[in-house]
Specification:
2 copies of one chain form a homodimer.
Chain A lengths: L10 H13 L5 E8 L9 E2 L3 H9 L5 H9 L5 H8 L6 E5 L4 E2 L6 E6 H5 L2 H24 L5 E3 L7 H13 L4 E2 L2 H7 L9 H6 L3 H12 L4 E3 L5 H12 L5 E4 L4 H14 L6 E4 L5 H5 L8 E4 L1 H4 L9 E9 L5 E3 L14 E7 L5 E8 L10 E3 L1 E6 L2 E2 L5 H17 L17 E4 L2
Parallel strand pairs in A: 6-7, 6-11, 8-9, 9-10, 10-11, 15-19
Antiparallel strand pairs in A: 1-5, 1-12, 2-4, 3-5, 3-17, 12-13, 14-15, 14-16, 17-18
Helix pairs in contact in A: 2-6, 3-4, 6-7, 7-8, 10-11
């Protein structure tokens, strides 16, 4: 498999460059902007995820001999464009919301400043990463709220494309999950991994008791035993008989959880296993988690719903050309007028206005080139991510992932209470454009 | 980036192997089966996709030094298991439905025969691939039906993880789409690629007319011009004025399509551009496509809905241990009894029963080791995919992808008319288990 990310690109990005090069417009100085017109699922806020991962992919966005040969053979672009692609690396500027930042409709999450050709070619990759990772983070942050401080583990790899699964584990971690089952996510992004045994392990052995003995012999009594392969009550009894009252946890993966969890807690306590925890993993989403708030659950494992964005598998972000540098050096705002898809052109400076008590109450998007003064009531949202082609190292790798996870906590702590309602509704903080 | 697929695995697969090795059960001869308990979205049939891609990933499922070192450092498994992993390659048998085959609830899509350890370790990867690719194919096949023979192009890369996008392009192609915008899918799987220009290209230029001239100069008059950046009627007029009446196509990406398409067709005809085609690309799904059946649309571009499975982003397939070889050499059926998740153990032979006119009317799953006689009324569904670790080359690469695309046409042609209803409902063909 090739490791260049350069062909993770829609063909029309290259044909546009081809035509613009012939016309002499490919080198126009441009601004592209990523934003979402709405929050899918009528959620109250979104969480930016994918930025650090994207920066690494932009670093690897180079056309090697294999890519150029394929483009030549398939007659995608002409020789001038092939020569230009051979020397391509992104040399412009990118700034944007920090990874882990909260966003609202029309928040300018990422801005790319470069020649037309240099910027347009990144459209597909930028959107693939931000749309998927933010969709996962948007779902995950709601689950974290619903879990009222109890730990969550992401275990949905099997319900997502194998590479998407790694990105999902990372996005869920940034949004507050504590661990993942995905080993590659552990290796690539430094995320804690977890997991003990599945039903197959119990079925493999002559009896549930034998399976539990095998697991405890190898993994110790602090492990988690899956007790619902046959009969939960008998499974719990066997688990404590085999492991003793110091058993770490039992896992429930079926049944009506609010009822079952309460019964199992009583059974464990009656057996003297008062310290044995209960983890649940049965098709949970934010609503099921919220429905267990008053049940004696100790932790949650979430699969399908988090890796598929809990009903909103793409964050509906778009990448739009919003300005072109005019002959006088000033930005000329550009905006299409398509029905239902009109956009606001020009350079923008986003600020989050905070109340005296530090609560976010407005997303203020200043239009024009003047940067507004930052004061105690407005927090600037943009940070430099790439400066003259140099990627800000701070946001890369495991360290960047950890930083994004911290930043989400800070950003979410500014939100008004209405942001945490799970019901569909309007964004918790209104976005306003402020002309200059 | 590492190219081994071995860590695309849930941690518990490895801890189960670790415990089973210590207990002496890791080498038990086992059968694992992939099936879906239901068709998500209450669809009438499903299309298997991902198999050829999966076989290549299984070939690359090897633990190299980097993987072993990471597992050792993070104390995931003990030394005996690390030694076993170092020598791992799949040496068992895999058989299953052909890629492109139709399936129903409980169809045993894939069966893995191997030692417990050798088979259980593939669970996560197998499900990641089949669940995502089949989810896309399940959505795409309905869109193909709704398009009543008009060509469809997949252009949803920006709304899916960057690697998922490549898999989605492949799955949509297998399900009958004719092309993709994704260049990497073109390179990796031999899928035709397409695309010309976006709104950004029009915005970049001083006028729509100048943008159209630039595009036509480079791409010729047989190109597709996007006419809705400003005003559609003016855009169409400009397009024909610049390109002449031989213009290949115009693209509409906004507005109320049934009305707009009819108006634009009339305008094109009035301008003499009777051969200029109309392609539409505005947030289409199978229902929107069906709603355009009586409109003069020539082709469709589909994005978000196809790459996200049109509301069902994972096919809900599971990978279950269904049998273990007993001391006498016979398969012992295994099945858990968890509430709402009970399964049917044992070896199975799936056949599709056909009426005298060749119409599928029953999915017959024979239980037990006797292979039923195949006759004119029953079509055997299993083919060998891996034999003693040797992968069937026929199904790999671009050739395997093309074969799967052909097979879907044949399999779908057997379906009863009820299968093509877009409304929610029961599977079009009932699945029955037949004991021995």
């Amino acid at each position: 498999m090739n490791t260049s990310t350069a062909l993770h690109t829609d063909r029309y990005e290259l044909t546009m460059i081809d035509a613009a090069m012939a016309r002499g417009t490919a080198e126009e100085h441009c601004l592209f902007e990523v934003f979402a017109r709405r929050l899918p699922g009528a959620r109250r806020y979104g969480v930016v995820a994918g930025t650090g991962r994207l920066l690494e992919l932009i670093r690897d966005f180079r056309f090697g001999d294999a890519e150029l040969e394929w483009l030549r053979t398939h007659d995608v672009v002409g020789q001038d464009t092939l020569d230009w692609l051979a020397n391509y690396r992104f040399r412009g500027n990118i700034w944007g919301y920090r990874e882990g930042e909260v966003y609202f409709p029309n928040s300018p999450i990422l801005t790319v400043e470069s020649s037309f050709a240099e910027g347009v070619i990144l459209e597909t990759l930028v959107l693939s990463v931000l749309n998927y990772d933010s969709a996962v983070a948007n779902a995950a942050t709601r689950m974290v709220t619903a879990a009222i401080g109890r730990p969550l583990a992401e275990m949905g790899s099997r319900r997502a494309n194998e590479e998407a699964a790694v990105a999902a584990a990372r996005a869920a971690y940034i949004a507050g999950f504590g661990a993942t089952s995905n080993l590659e996510a552990g290796r690539r992004w430094g995320i804690p991994t977890m997991g003990t045994a599945a039903h197959a392990f119990t079925l493999l052995h002559a009896s549930e008791e034998e399976a539990f003995r095998a697991q405890i012999e190898k993994l110790g009594t602090n492990t988690t035993l899956l007790v619902d392969t046959y009969d939960v009550r008998a499974g719990v009894e066997t688990a404590i008989r085999v492991a003793g009252t110091e058993l770490g946890a039992i896992r429930l993966d079926s049944g009506d959880l609010p009822t079952l969890v309460t019964e199992v807690r009583e059974q464990l306590d009656a057996l003297g296993a008062t310290g044995t925890k209960i983890t649940v993993t049965n098709d949970l989403d934010e609503h099921a988690i919220a429905g267990l708030a008053n049940s004696p659950v100790d932790s949650y494992g979430v699969g399908t719903s988090v890796v598929t964005g809990s009903g909103s598998p793409a964050a509906s972000m778009v990448y739009k050309l919003v300005a072109r540098r005019g002959a006088d050096g000033a930005w000329v705002p550009l905006a299409k007028n398509s029905e239902g898809k009109a956009s606001i052109g020009g350079k923008k400076t986003p600020m989050r206005r905070l109340s005296a008590s530090g609560r976010a109450n407005q997303e203020r998007i200043y239009l024009g080139e003047t940067t507004p003064a930052q004061d105690v009531t407005e927090r600037a949202l943009n940070v430099p991510l790439v400066v003259n082609g140099e990627i800000e190292e701070l946001y890369l790798g495991a360290a960047g992932t950890a930083l994004a996870r911290e930043h989400r906590v800070a950003a979410v702590s500014e939100l008004p209470a209405a942001a945490f309602r799970l019901a569909r509704g309007d964004a918790a903080v209104p976005t306003v454009f402020i002309g200059n």
